[in-house]
Amino acid sequence: MPKKVDHEARRQEIADALWRIAVARGLDGVSLRDVAAEADISLGRLQHYFRTKDEMLLFAMRSVSARADERIRERIEAVAGAVAEGVLAVPPPRIVLREVLAGMLPLDERSTVGALVGAAYFARAVHDERLQAEAREGIPGLAAFLGDLLSRVHEEGGLRAEYADADPKDEAMRLISLVDGLSTYILLGVHSGETALGLLDGQLERMWTDGR
Amino acid sequence: MPKKVDHEARRQEIADALWRIAVARGLDGVSLRDVAAEADISLGRLQHYFRTKDEMLLFAMRSVSARADERIRERIEAVAGAVAEGVLAVPPPRIVLREVLAGMLPLDERSTVGALVGAAYFARAVHDERLQAEAREGIPGLAAFLGDLLSRVHEEGGLRAEYADADPKDEAMRLISLVDGLSTYILLGVHSGETALGLLDGQLERMWTDGR
């Protein structure tokens, strides 16, 4: 299906152009025409792929999520490899949890691009039902996934009593919110990525019975 | 000084117009001309008060902060009144802390307006050094204030060991970040204000030695 592949590749190229603008100056007031210019195609051609700015932003945001998933998967695989080789002795669920949360922080260029696109998305989504729907679908799924990991840590006796008493999904939602806020303050230059990661780790450590 | 009062009053009127647009449809692509139209004044007159959109946004954001301070002060005074009358027996610092944090959540119309202006501000500030400076000044001050409250709770023996071990400013930064993320997910419709407040209270309760 070369045609479909081309179509997807072109959509990704356009999303990449949108990303570059998002990183360089934000998306406030950016038009389809601006993105077409950045992608070096005509406006008509761009509109063949995306009719509206929100449609384009939705695709760009999904693309950000997919790349974040990939990045987090790489982090987990690196850790899993170390466990298999006997380098690490700590049980996996809490590590997976930590890597997913750390992977959501803008700590390097790739994740910062994602966070900047996310910031632009957020500013529009608060006024757009369709864009909000994406968050309403994605976040509870993420909370359920992280909640399951917390339950597994608990089954292994690794979760402190006061954290084990809470609904795992609620606890996960608190962690997601914490990471979201920590990310905001990285982007605003209030603290460094390293500081934010330390604050996240500080919270995680006190959740575990062995404190690490 | 009637002239200065008028000047400030007019700036506030313009900021109010900006707020109304921020609430109704967001500030993406909104021009000085749009705000002038909403404020029912000429563009030239508006530019007498604000030369750029960022200057206007900075004023609107400071105005949001001032109103949030006022709202939080009201909440604290209401609680302090109840303590003085003997209705409440719980020691004040933890209550002040809780009211400040709860007051940052978009739980009613006034605080939602503030959060929506904040969202628009955030989306621009990530690309604007001058707007970022505002966050870099304000947030550490807030963290220091909340950190002092935590230290006072600790002095009264109210803070659990694992929270007392952390730097109070770090702990405060975690709470600010948590509230920031919880607010984001209220605005995106992921959870209700009530749910978010419950998640905040759940975190606070486990920080106190008596668990409430």
UniProtKB/TrEMBL annotation, chains A, B:
DNA-binding region, residues = 31-50
Name the domain of life this protein comes from.
Bacteria
One Gene Ontology molecular-function label:
transcription cis-regulatory region binding
The yes or no answer to whether the keyword Membrane is present is no
Q: Where is the HTH tetR-type domain?
A: 8-68
Query: What keywords are annotated for this sequence in UniProt?
Result: DNA-binding, Repressor, Transcription, Transcription regulation
Q: What would be one Pfam family of this protein? A: TetR_C_6
For this protein, the record's PANTHER family field holds: HTH-TYPE TRANSCRIPTIONAL REGULATOR PKSA, HTH-TYPE TRANSCRIPTIONAL REGULATOR RUTR
Name under which the protein is recorded: TetR family transcriptional regulator
Q: Which organism is it from?
A: Streptomyces finlayi
